[in-house]
Specification:
Blueprint lengths: L8 H10 L1 H16 L7 E5 L9 H4 L4 E5 L3 H10 L5 E4 L9 H8 L3 E6 L15 H11 L5 E10 L17 H8 L8 E3 L12 E8 L2 E9 L4
Parallel strand pairs: 1-2, 1-4, 2-3, 4-5
Antiparallel strand pairs: 5-6, 5-8, 7-8
């Protein structure tokens, strides 16, 4: 990943420092989600955590080994400093974006739980031109079938200020418009960027939150944990 890439490298980490108070409410929501996610596995694979800005130490402390797939060298250095003493091992993970990368991930870590940290709604390092995101996400779900995994990821982003900033409770199958009305109940035209993740595991319950990335930019985030048992 280039050092000045907008979703990683120095630019992203400077933004994280500058907007740390703006991001704090969303990070508190992530902490609540993770406190309620209790996989039986003692090993964890973190996929795309950046520097772990949204990760609470108490959550990571529940695992005996943490494998980190993170291509950004700045993020890896910061993550090591933020979680000094944690049993972290690193892999740049560029192979993960390949067509069979999800199956390779599952095979490499047969006894681990997997946490995707706001990754699935982004362009992945190493994706070929013309990448079929929907097919790749389907392959990911198939590769992890029956395994403990969870993801928070972007659904859409917009510059339109929401009318509601929180959405409590679990939600079942819905259309994207039903999700948007949770935060923009006033209706009307909404200019947005679709991050092409809506519809993953349609029968699973999920939760939603807003991440105010900057003073004039909001992202709708979906939390999707695999059902236990």
């Amino acid at each position: 990943m280039p050092m000045l890439h907008p979703s990683g490298g120095l630019g992203y980490h400077l933004r994280a420092w500058r907007h740390r108070r703006l991001w704090a409410p969303f990070h508190a929501v992530v902490a609540q989600w993770l406190a309620g996610w209790q996989p039986a596995a003692r090993r964890l694979v973190l996929v795309g955590p950046s520097a772990g800005y949204a990760l609470p130490r108490a959550f990571l402390a529940g695992f005996t080994r943490i494998h980190v797939l993170e291509p950004d060298p700045v993020a890896r250095w910061l993550l090591t400093r933020r979680f000094a003493g944690m049993p972290l091992t690193f892999d740049a993970g560029r192979w993960f974006a390949r067509p069979h990368g999800a199956a390779e991930l599952a095979a490499r870590h047969a006894d681990a739980a997997f946490l995707f940290c706001n990754l699935l709604g982004q362009e992945l390092v190493g994706q070929p031109r013309g990448h079929d995101r929907a097919r790749w996400l389907t392959a990911l779900a198939q590769a992890l079938q029956g395994r403990p995994w969870a993801s928070w990821h972007e659904l859409v982003s917009t510059g339109t200020c929401p009318g509601v900033t929180s959405a409590a409770g679990w939600y079942g199958p819905a259309c994207l418009e039903d999700v948007l009305v949770l935060f923009w109940p006033q209706g009307g035209e909404l200019a947005l960027i679709d991050h092409a993740t809506f519809g993953m595991m349609p029968a699973w319950p999920r939760q939603y939150a807003l991440w105010r990335l900057s003073p004039a930019r909001w992202h709708v985030i979906e939390w999707l944990p695999a059902p236990q048992g």
